[in-house]
Amino acid sequence: MAAATDAHLSLIAYGDVVAGCERCALARTRTQVVFGSGSPTADLMFVGEAPGFHEDKQGVPFVGAAGKLLGKLLEGIGLTRDEVWICNVLKCRPPGNRDPLPDEIEACEPHLWRQIELIQPTLIATLGNFATKLLSGKPAGITQVHGRPQQVVLGGNAVTLYPIFHPAAALYTPRMLQVLEEDFRRIPDLLGRPAAPPPPTAPLYVPDPPVEHPVQLGLF
């Protein structure tokens, strides 16, 4: 219990530091820093690309349509958002939801490394291209490597890296959603936990009408 409390306090303290970050030009256009949310002692960590419109307004990652799908996918394997840690490579929204720029990734990645050091997850699921390439240190895109666990050392600890598609890529593509569901079903085994119950027969996600705000393009 003491270790969990210390981890929580350390993460809160670091979040307070990052809230005032001015390492790159995104500090001038953001509404607020989107540090991350979930358990400070999570075994499973999700790393996406960057906050979108809704995340920038609310200060919480994955709260839009892709976030709702992520929640449903977690439910399908017997987990909740409170049991995992969810964050992004960038902590600030790029204007217009454009792709992150190399200098923005370089400026922000120390924050991600520190989060990994503090949380010490055993499994990191990278969502899409940017997170996968950064944390694997390899140029292979998500289409080539999704669903293939890799053993890496991050934050000074041995970690299983598990690249999967970004939920946004599956919002309106049934085939992509099926692939994402299949990759998610491997997560309990990678965590060394009992297999989750069979997925529901009803569709996990029924898309709303198209939204006004664009989604980042680096998802494949």
Written account of the structure:
This protein is an alpha/beta fold and 220 residues long. It has a single domain (2-190), classed as Uracil-DNA Glycosylase, subunit E. It contains eight helices and six strands. Strands 1-3-2-4-6-5 form a six-stranded mixed sheet. Strand 5 and strand 6 (157-164) form a beta hairpin. Helix 1 packs antiparallel against helix 4. The termini are far apart.
The CATH topology name reads Uracil-DNA Glycosylase, subunit E
Strand order of the largest sheet: 1-3-2-4-6-5
* Assigned CATH class: Alpha Beta
Name the structural class.
alpha/beta
Mean pLDDT score, rounded?
90
Shape: globular
Question: Any idea how many domains?
Answer: 1
**Helicity level, as a percent range?**
25-40%
Report the β-strand fraction as a percent range.
5-15%
List the helices and strands and how they pair.
Elements: H1 2-18, E1 37-38, E2 44-48, H2 53-58, H3 65-76, E3 85-88, H4 102-119, E4 123-127, H5 129-136, H6 142-145, E5 150-154, E6 157-164, H7 174-184, H8 187-190
Parallel strand pairs: 2-3, 2-4, 4-6
Antiparallel strand pairs: 1-3, 5-6
Helix pairs in contact: 1-4
Q: Short summary of the structure?
A:
By secondary structure, the protein is α/β, with parallel strands linked by helices.
Keyword list:
220 residues, alpha/beta, Uracil-DNA Glycosylase, subunit E, 6-stranded mixed beta sheet, 8 helices
